[in-house]
Amino acid sequence: MLLWIEIVVSVLGGGIAAGTVFYILGRRAGRGRADAVERQAAQDRERELAEARQRLQLEAREETIRAREALERELAERRRELDQRQGGLERQQAGVAERERELSRREQAFTERERALAASEREAQARLERIAGLSAQDAKEELKRRFEEEARGEAAALVRDIREQAQKNADRDAKKIVALAIQRIATEYTAETTVSAVALPSDEMKGRIIGREGRNIRAFEAATGADVIIDDTPDTVVISCFDPVRREVARVALGRLIADGRIHPGRIEEVVRKAQEEIDAGIQEAGERAIYETGVRGMHQELVKLVGRMRYRTSYGQNILEHSKEVAWIAGIMAAELKLDVALAKRGALLHDIGKVLTHEHDGTHVQLGVEVGTKYGEHPVVINCIAAHHDDVPHESAISVIVQAADAISGARPGARREAFETYVKRLTAIEQIAGEFGGVEKVYAIQAGREVRVVVTPSTVDDAAAMGLAEQISRRIERELQYPGQIRVVVIRETRAVDIAR
User: Fold this and answer.
1) From CA 313, how far away is CA 197, in angstroms rounded?
2) Cα distance between residue 405 and residue 391, in whole Å
């Protein structure tokens, strides 16, 4: 189309140019001739314009026809596509309708089946209640009880399997580490006890200690804070005081006064002051020696003094300072074997009983006091957790605290390491037997091996094998919660079935 327009424009341009030429020639040739030429040029232009117009009309008509045909073809193609899509949708709708009808039929069938099952269940329940003589609630309780028994049995069996598997994998390495630690620390140990009795050269010295009208003994008790007991015991004076440091100061001062022979209020105050200074220096020296022997570094001076004061504190007859050093050595060896921080293990072990030197001065357990003093002097959180968790008061936050607890148990459970008063021993045995006897199915309880083991005899018809495992666990946990004892206590549950007959 554009080509034809360009042709027409060219033709028109050529005609105009020719007219101009004719016009110029006409003017030169004369007015008449110019008119003839002009008329001829006009006729030519009209003829050319008519031809061009005709050609343009033909081209436009052809172009319109082609466009219409193309549009008709496109519309026909789209119409076919729409017909195909409509057919597909109709088929899908038919399928959906069929599925809905099928689901409706199934739902109706299920509803009818549920009604039938509900009726059968009610009938069966009524029949069971008539046969068993139980109501629905009673039957539910019975089933619940049976399920609980089965679950407990399965739980006990699972616990037993887990323990056996864990022990199978861990006992060998644990025994190796513990044995190595004990062997390397198996040095001669002498339990140091606090001496509260002072020997006298003669009974005459008792009168000099008392003094005229009792002024010497009153001055001595006021200066030391300890009580002096003078009785009929020959050649012996007993010093009584809850504070082991003050008792030691009184013992040293009284010994020097007896050796010097000069006993009067002025001399008593001087000797007691010197004894106090020597004991304080000895406490500092004992603390420094302990941290040097255990390899602990960078400890606050107040903690060093508290460590030294452990020298004059005992627990079940075991010296706390020597016990703490022993625990530190064992814990350090175990930590080294397990590739843990040896310095932290020794530090936590050395300070695990630090609160025991403060129990007579402050309220709270030795664990609480130890945590407070460790926090006050900026000890490491792992060390604080070792102090707090060595009696399971709080959960263990690291393997080092577990090691410290194990080392503490090893040191305390060693034969001869600890001893206790006879009355306390009897009370502990009675309490152990009483706790174990309160559980259901227990026939007899025997505390043996100085309270280190308790044997529980149960009724075979009441307690099965799985329940026996759970019973041992329950008794152990309750003993841990309610009793205080050195070392550890082994709980053995015995379930025995005997069949007896007589041959005649």
Assistant:
1) 17
2) 7
Give CATH for domain 317-413.
1.10.3210.10
| Alpha-carbon gap, residue 70 to 49, rounded angstroms | 31
What is the pTM for the complete model shown? 0.50
Higher pLDDT, 498 or 454: 454
> Of 3-12, 275-284, 359-368, 418-427, which range is least confident?
3-12
CA angle 289, 315, 413 (to 5 degrees): 95
Integer Cα distance of 116 and 462 in angstroms = 42
Residue whose structure tokens are 């005609």: 15
Mean pLDDT of the chain: 79
pLDDT at 421: 53
Q: How far is CA 377 from CA 306, 342, 358, in A?
A: 12, 21, 15
CB–CB of 270/253 below 8 Å? no
E-strand stretches of 392-432 = none
For residue 453, name the pLDDT band (cuts at 50, 70, 90). Answer: confident
Assign a CATH topology to domain 422-495.
GMP Synthetase; Chain A, domain 3 (3.30.300)
Residue 340's pLDDT is 87
Pair type for strands 453-458 and 490-495 = parallel
Going by C-beta distance under 8 Å and a sequence separation of 6 or more, which residues neighbour residue 61?
none
Domain boundaries defined on the chain: 2-111, 197-283, 317-413, 422-495
The DSSP string of 211-235 is -GGGHHHHHHHHHHS-EEE--SSTT
At residue 421, the 3 state secondary structure works out as coil
Cα 195 to Cα 237: distance, rounded to the nearest angstrom: 11
In percent, the amount of the chain with pLDDT more than 70 equals 81
Q: What topology is assigned to 197-283 in CATH?
A: Ribosomal Protein S8; Chain: A, domain 1 (3.30.1370)
- Rounded-to-integer distance, Cα 448 and Cα 406, Å: 23
Contact assessment for residue 352 and residue 386, using Cβ atoms and an 8 Å cutoff: yes
